């Protein structure tokens, strides 16, 4: 297969981290990325070049391009953490195979992406591109964090931002695993949808009687783990209302203002703790057999219909500068069509 010398990509326009705290809104892409034609990256030892079919747009991607993620931006490099595509070159026997992958060298918001061979996940034929484009960040985080819940021996757990794609995956895992999920959302109209996904209880953070409802639910179900994507005062208040030995696992920071920790004595006398979760670290530190089992479980759930990606919009790469901000953050997953999909994979 003859490869072009150049490709279209949404490249980062700044380096390093932002000087001020950033929120998760995306009114415009223009301050953060630009659509450019750049040289095609060439794979070296242990690397693969992928013709990208679709790329996901996750909150972590938005945080990254705005300079608010844990790893710094590099000006001129394509953005985008995960996607699906076909391996077209590189140091791998997977050339010609359709794969999900993390982009470790040149991002997925592009016609081609460059990554380490170790990140390639060969796909089942019954997992379509809509699910495969987001196979890693949300589904793998859900499975990995549910491992924490199971290992703790809890009968129940709390998940904030539960109406998100990841939140719905957690609801289903809890239901299927016999561990009752408590969903926390901002809007009451999301409650029935979450119960259908497996939530045992739903707490609406904006309800005037939220504190009373939380005391009742926590008293009855006794959750010991709070899986938190928001890190706001509601999360902190829930954590301090939980019982002895509770764990607050923070995997996102959607809130614009940090919470106040009003009960520090609980860390001393009740054995409570706060910790972070980062999927990249989990995949690096977890035994390979468990990572492979989690990947197989994720693909099986998509293949048999227990999970599906709620895609709200698919925007063409060449029109993403205008279209993506208009659809991002309005419910459902946004994906970028990078033009490489084969027939029958959509």
Structural class: alpha/beta
Return the domain count.
Answer: 2
CATH class of the largest domain: Alpha Beta
Shape: globular
What profile does the largest beta sheet have?
A: 7 strands, mixed
User: What is the H/E order?
Assistant: EEEHEEEEHHEHEHEHEHEHEHHEHE
Helical residues, percent: 25-40%
CATH topology of the largest domain: Quinone Oxidoreductase, Chain A, domain 1
Distance between the termini: 22 Å
Number of strands: 15
Q: Measured on Cα atoms, how large is the radius of gyration? A: 20 Å
Count of DSSP-assigned helices: 11
Low-confidence stretches: none
CATH architecture of the largest domain: Alpha-Beta Complex
How big a fraction of the residues is strand?
Answer: 15-25%
Mean pLDDT: 95
> Any idea what the CATH superfamily of the largest domain is called?
Medium-chain alcohol dehydrogenases, catalytic domain
For the structure shown, list the relevant keywords:
alpha/beta, Rossmann fold, 7-stranded mixed beta sheet, 346 residues, 6-stranded parallel beta sheet, 11 helices, Quinone Oxidoreductase, Chain A, domain 1
């Amino acid at each position: 297969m003859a490869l072009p010398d150049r490709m279209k990509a949404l490249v980062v326009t700044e380096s390093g981290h932002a000087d001020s705290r950033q929120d998760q809104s995306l009114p415009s892409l223009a301050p953060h990325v630009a659509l450019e034609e750049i040289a095609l990256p060439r794979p070296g030892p242990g690397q693969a070049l992928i013709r990208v079919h679709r790329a996901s747009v996750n909150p972590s991607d938005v945080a990254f391009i705005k300079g608010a993620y844990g790893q710094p931006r590099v000006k001129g490099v394509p953005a985008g953490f995960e996607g699906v595509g076909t391996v077209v070159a590189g140091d791998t026997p997977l050339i010609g195979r359709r794969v999900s992958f993390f982009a470790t060298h040149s991002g997925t918001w592009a016609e081609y992406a460059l990554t380490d061979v170790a990140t390639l996940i060969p796909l089942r034929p019954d997992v379509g591109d809509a699910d495969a484009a987001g196979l890693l960040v949300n589904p793998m985080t859900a499975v990995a964090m549910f491992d924490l819940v199971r290992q703790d021996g809890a009968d129940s757990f709390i998940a904030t931002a539960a109406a998100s794609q990841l939140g719905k995956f957690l609801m289903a895992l809890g239901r299927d695993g016999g561990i009752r999920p408590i969903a926390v959302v901002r809007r009451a109209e999301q409650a029935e949808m979450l119960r259908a996904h497996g939530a045992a209880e739903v707490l609406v953070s904006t309800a005037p009687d939220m504190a009373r409802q939380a005391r009742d639910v926590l008293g009855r179900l006794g959750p010991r783990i709070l899986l938190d994507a928001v890190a706001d005062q509601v999360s902190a208040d829930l954590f301090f209302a939980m019982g002895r030995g509770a764990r607050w696992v923070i995997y996102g920071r959607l809130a614009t203002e940090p919470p106040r920790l009003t009960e520090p004595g609980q860390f001393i006398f009740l054995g409570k703790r706060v910790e972070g979760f980062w999927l990249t670290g989990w995949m690096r530190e977890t035994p390979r057999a468990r990572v492979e089992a989690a990947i197989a479980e994720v693909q099986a759930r998509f293949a048999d219909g227990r999970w599906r990606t709620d895609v709200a919009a698919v925007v063409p790469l060449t029109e993403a500068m205008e279209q993506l901000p208009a659809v991002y953050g309005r419910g459902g997953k946004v994906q970028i069509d990078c033009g490489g999909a084969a027939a029958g994979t959509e």
